[in-house]
């Protein structure tokens, strides 16, 4: 059992209308039936997000439809033609306020509580679009985790739900297989955990079991960019730790041998007391920093 690490509730998503690029023929027929008897201009402006009257008029004229044509006069072929025209037209991107990502702070605190890593970083990508559906990718990399024996372990989530099976067919695993850790880390990853979360109004699952996510280029690119950003931060941490350890080894060497050198130099010079090297060690330490 793990006690909750956060007390604040996540931000509630906002209900939005569908985007023109994300509807199929069946959904378009249902939307047309709801606005039966209305004009196509009214239908487009009131049934889809990010579509106003001016945008709807330009679209309908470019698609060869009259803005004042009643929706009830559309035939099955007209519905298909309208749907294809909607997919070709360049509408504004969909609104991402309908999504509810985990959040960087929540994900970081949960990883720290369960895995107790040496270092953890989280990257949340800006909202993107896949076939008219907005999505947000969150990736976390935890280095030096307790209880992990493998070099790199993958943990996947979709709309906050963990995905347990069929990981090797998932888009996140495909990104990890192609990822070159040597470009970002000075050493091989040790007990490293990678967490991926995809939040969307429509997750492109590969199978009906919803255990693995397909690899459309838009989602794969966002996961790769987030992983690269996390690894750049991890590289900064590891490089700083290695440099600090090297400075410590060099200072310990000075601290060990400098008193002996001072003693030998005092005897060669025929003096009685060896010089005080405390100030010299302080200056060496400042120079190493």
CATH architecture of the largest domain: 2-Layer Sandwich
Global shape = elongated
By CATH reckoning, the class of the largest domain would read Alpha Beta
Instruction: Count helical runs.
Output: 8
Oligomer: single chain
What does it look like?
44% of the residues lie in helices and 13% in strands. The chain is α+β, with helices and mostly antiparallel strands. It folds into 3 domains: 20-88, Helicase, Ruva Protein, domain 3 (Orthogonal Bundle); 104-237, Ribosomal Protein S5, domain 2; 249-288, no CATH class. Strands 1, 2, 3, 4, 5 and 6 form a 6-stranded mixed sheet that branches. Strand 2 (128-130) and strand 3 form a beta hairpin. It starts with 24 loop residues before the first helix and ends with a helix.
In a few lines, what is going on in this structure?
The protein is α+β, with helices and mostly antiparallel strands and 289 residues long. It is built from eight helices and six strands.
Which terms would index this structure?
Helicase, Ruva Protein, domain 3; 6 strands; 44% helix; Ribosomal Protein S5, domain 2; 6-stranded mixed sheet; 289 residues
Write the layout of secondary structure elements.
Elements: H1 25-34, H2 40-47, H3 53-63, H4 76-88, H5 104-115, E1 119-124, E2 128-130, E3 133-143, E4 152-158, E5 161-163, H6 171-178, E6 192-200, H7 217-269, H8 278-288
Parallel strand pairs: 4-6
Antiparallel strand pairs: 1-3, 2-3, 3-6, 4-5
Helix pairs in contact: 2-3, 6-7, 7-8
């Amino acid at each position: 059992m793990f006690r909750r690490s956060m007390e604040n509730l996540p931000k509630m998503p906002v209900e939005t209308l569908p985007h023109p690029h994300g509807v199929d023929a069946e959904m378009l027929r249902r939307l047309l039936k709801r606005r039966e008897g209305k004009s196509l201009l009214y239908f487009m402006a009131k049934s889809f997000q990010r579509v106003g009257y001016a945008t709807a008029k330009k679209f309908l004229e470019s698609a060869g439809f009259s803005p004042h044509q009643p929706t009830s006069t559309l035939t099955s072929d007209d519905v298909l033609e309208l749907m294809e025209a909607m997919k070709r037209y360049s509408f504004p991107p969909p609104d991402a306020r309908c999504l509810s990502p985990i959040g960087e702070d929540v994900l970081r605190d949960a990883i720290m509580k369960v895995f107790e890593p040496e270092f953890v970083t989280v990257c949340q990508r800006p909202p993107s679009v896949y076939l008219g559906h907005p999505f947000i990718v969150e990736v976390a990399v935890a280095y030096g985790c307790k209880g992990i024996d493998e070099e790199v372990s993958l943990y996947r989530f979709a709309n906050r739900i963990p995905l347990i099976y069929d990981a090797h067919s998932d888009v996140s695993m495909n990104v990890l297989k192609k990822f070159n850790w040597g470009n970002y880390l000075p050493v091989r990853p040790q007990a490293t955990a990678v967490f991926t979360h995809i939040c969307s109004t429509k997750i492109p699952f590969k199978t009906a079991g919803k255990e693995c996510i397909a690899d459309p280029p838009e989602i794969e690119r966002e996961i790769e960019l987030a992983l690269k950003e996390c690894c750049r931060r991890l590289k900064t941490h590891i490089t700083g730790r290695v440099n600090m350890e090297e400075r410590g080894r060099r200072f310990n060497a000075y601290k060990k041998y400098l008193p002996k050198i001072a003693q030998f130099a005092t005897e060669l010079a025929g003096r009685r007391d060896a010089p005080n090297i405390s100030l010299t060690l302080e200056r060496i330490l400042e120079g190493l920093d």
